[in-house]
Amino acid sequence: MHDELEAVVVAFDEESGIATLTLDRPDSLNALNARMRTGIETGLDRLAERDADAEGVAVRAVVIEGAGGKAFCAGADINEFSGTSPGAFEPHTMRDSVGEFPAPVIAKIDGYCLGGGLELALACDFRLASESSRLGFPEVDLGILPGAGGIQYVARLADPSFATELAMTGEHITAERAADAGVVNHVHPDDEFEEEVAGFVETIAEKPPLAVRAIKDSGNVAVESDRHAGRKYDRRVFATLLETDDHAEGARAFADDDYDPEFTGR
Ligand code: COA
């Protein structure tokens, strides 16, 4: 599947179950405009439809990347600004769709990842960055703040003081510094980046998909509720996963080294 939506290209490899959403406005460093936000939502909806039509699970992982080799995304499109940070006041935003998408979503950051672009990456489950990438919240220089939860995300991943420093200074920090703070999962040398990301995504895509999805949900529950509610969720889902074909398949492969398991998401 290869869909050219507005400002976003969606590719889906049926064999691996890996989807790629490419932010495709390289001349504007993939700045997020209304068309791109709609494109991301529509792309995710199309992928969700594939899942609904499949027996078991079709989509194993989604990668979001930027076209052009210079930026993941340089933030909200400044030309569309009208005094508010886009996405800040919408009841359900494109970033919620990313966070709530059932399969894991990986931000592949190669180049500038700024403002609303960093907030998009933060809504993903994982952030992988090339060494030369630069991340930051430049909104302060426009007299505003990251309006789609950026400070909140960073405060939880790193600490509140790191988050406010990033947003108050508007500094572009290195991928290494972002990783040290816990904001980025892994940094790789530029010339190894493609290969490393592909390996990471394939590893996750090959795991039993219902367990992967349950783990994603559990991570979200951990952030959004207290530990008691989280443990209750884990216990309930654990019991459900024990009943799946994938669990039986995994157990069989554990017992028999020569058996190659095939996980279907059932
Ligand atoms: N919105 C709209 N257009 C943007 C943009 C944004 N957020 N970021 C970059 N662009 C456009 C530039 O206007 C330029 O367009 P042009 O070629 O028509 O002049 C093009 O992308 C290339 O950017 P340029 O500034 O020439 O590249 P650079 O390498 O000199 O600098 C950045 C790169 C990222 C440092 C710089 O573009 C920048 O600071 N962008 C704004 C970042 C920002 O404030 N984002 C948060 C918005 S809330």
UniProtKB/TrEMBL annotation:
InterPro entries: ClpP/crotonase-like_dom_sf, Enoyl-CoA_hyd/isom_CS, Enoyl-CoA_hydra/iso, Enoyl-CoA_hydra_C. Signal peptide: none annotated. CDD domains: crotonase-like (cd06558). Keywords: Isomerase, Lyase. GO terms for biological process: fatty acid beta-oxidation. GO terms for molecular function: isomerase activity; lyase activity. Belongs to the enoyl-CoA hydratase/isomerase family. This is Enoyl-CoA hydratase/isomerase. It comes from Halococcus hamelinensis 100A6.
